[in-house]
């Protein structure tokens, strides 16, 4: 393992019944002028909106509703104006990862006089030179881990770009109540579970040597997601399923798992281009691309077989002495598990009927993520295009 430094200052408040007792103090500690950021109608339908408004009735709340999945830069621009015009002191994000992602960029944008797309486009270079409003969040979907990391992913439909940016801070306080995810639809539960699983895979398949501490933690979390995701899909109000998925999501992307890693991510970069051009659900795109990308990596570079076989033995409990066969079986198991969650498993099933954007998407994926140099298995534009093409048809090629 190489040298590393780790710090995460987020105050996690996990469990039921904590909002009534702790939300007001957690928010008002930072000030009385609050930007209340949320998504669609789900928090109003569930009653959470009224709960939050009641608990914070004595504070000055400015609302920013309508944050979309794959949050758009238009919402960030609107939020920037609101935090400046109302001299906001703290941002409260209530929702899933998209809402929290938007809140974090808005929290930086208060202190920037230009277009907030600049703060995304330069991947956070400017944000790290700026102050940041504190962010408090109430999580309603287990998926992205945004509740305990500094990252955000923002889309610009006008330029067909979906880019990640990092800020100077993680959320100050995050409320994680598994019961708030009971009303998440089955399709979103499956997509969120796939996002968690993908976060772990992207960090697990890495060229770092003898990093067994991190690899072992990831294997345990992957087994947890494999076990509990199907239960949450079938039994939406199963507390144990929701709690295990929620904490797995947080742990998967709070920085602990990537300690001592060397490589960048691959499948997320490919999926960001799908979402940029077609605005599909992020987790669904990951579900389609992940097993194809894994198979392509194994076929292109046989030295990956050992790691894929470890994945098969330690995560899927596969047996066998032939390394390559176990490696391929592990990928098959991954495909079958994703499919069993109720996923569409081809791009045409999510409305991508032809390859007209594949060249541009491949070029952007390679350029934005440095896939030719930083990926676990280096990928050219032709490699990326081949993975998109493989995702057009049923099943795996092997």
TrEMBL record:
Residue span(s) of domain Fe-containing alcohol dehydrogenase-like C-terminal: 189-392
Keyword field contains Oxidoreductase: yes
InterPro entries named in the record: ADH_Fe/GldA (IPR001670), ADH_Fe_C (IPR056798), ADH_Fe_CS (IPR018211), BDH-like (IPR044731)
A Pfam family of this chain: ADH_Fe_C
CDD domains: BDH
Keyword tags: Oxidoreductase
Superkingdom of this protein's organism: Bacteria
Domain spans labelled Alcohol dehydrogenase iron-type/glycerol dehydrogenase GldA: 9-178
Keyword Transferase: no
Protein name: Iron-containing alcohol dehydrogenase
């Amino acid at each position: 393992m190489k040298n590393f430094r780790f710090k995460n200052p987020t105050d996690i408040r996990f469990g039921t019944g904590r909002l009534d007792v702790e939300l007001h103090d957690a928010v008002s500690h930072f000030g009385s002028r609050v930007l209340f950021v949320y998504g669609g109608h789900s928090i109003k339908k569930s009653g959470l909106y009224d709960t939050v408004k009641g608990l914070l009735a004595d504070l000055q709340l400015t609302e920013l509703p309508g944050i979309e999945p794959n949050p758009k830069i238009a919402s960030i621009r609107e939020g920037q104006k609101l935090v400046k015009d109302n001299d906001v002191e703290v941002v409260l994000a209530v929702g899933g990862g998209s809402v929290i992602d938007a809140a974090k960029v808005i929290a930086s944008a208060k202190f920037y006089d230009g277009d907030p797309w600049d703060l995304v486009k330069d991947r956070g270079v400017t944000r790290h030179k700026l102050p940041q409003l504190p962010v408090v969040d109430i999580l309603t979907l287990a998926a992205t881990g945004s509740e305990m990391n500094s990252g955000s992913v923002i889309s610009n439909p006008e330029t067909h770009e979906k880019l990640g940016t990092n800020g100077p801070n993680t959320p100050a306080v995050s409320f994680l109540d598994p019961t708030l995810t009971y009303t998440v639809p089955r399709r979103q539960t499956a997509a969120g579970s796939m996002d968690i699983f993908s976060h772990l895979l992207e960090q697990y398949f890495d060229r770092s040597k003898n990093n067994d501490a991190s690899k072992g933690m990831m294997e345990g979390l992957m087994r947890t997601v494999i076990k509990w995701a199907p239960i949450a899909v079938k039994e939406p109000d199963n507390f144990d399923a929701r709690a295990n998925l929620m904490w797995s999501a947080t742990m998967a992307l709070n920085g602990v798992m990537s300690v001592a890693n060397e490589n960048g991510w691959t499948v997320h970069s490919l999926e960001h281009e799908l979402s940029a051009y077609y605005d599909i659900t992020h987790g669904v795109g990951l579900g389609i691309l992940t097993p194809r990308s894994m198979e392509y990596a194994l076929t292109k570079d046989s030295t990956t077989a050992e790691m894929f076989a470890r994945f098969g033995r330690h995560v899927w409990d596969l047996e066998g002495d032939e390394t390559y066969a176990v490696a391929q079986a592990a990928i098959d198991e991954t495909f079958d598990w994703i499919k069993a969650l109720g996923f569409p498993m081809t791009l045409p099933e999510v409305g991508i009927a032809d390859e007209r954007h594949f060249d541009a998407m491949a070029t952007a994926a390679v350029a934005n993520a440095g896939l030719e140099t930083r990926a676990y298995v280096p990928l050219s534009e032709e490699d990326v295009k081949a993975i998109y093409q493989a995702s057009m048809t049923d099943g795996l090629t092997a």
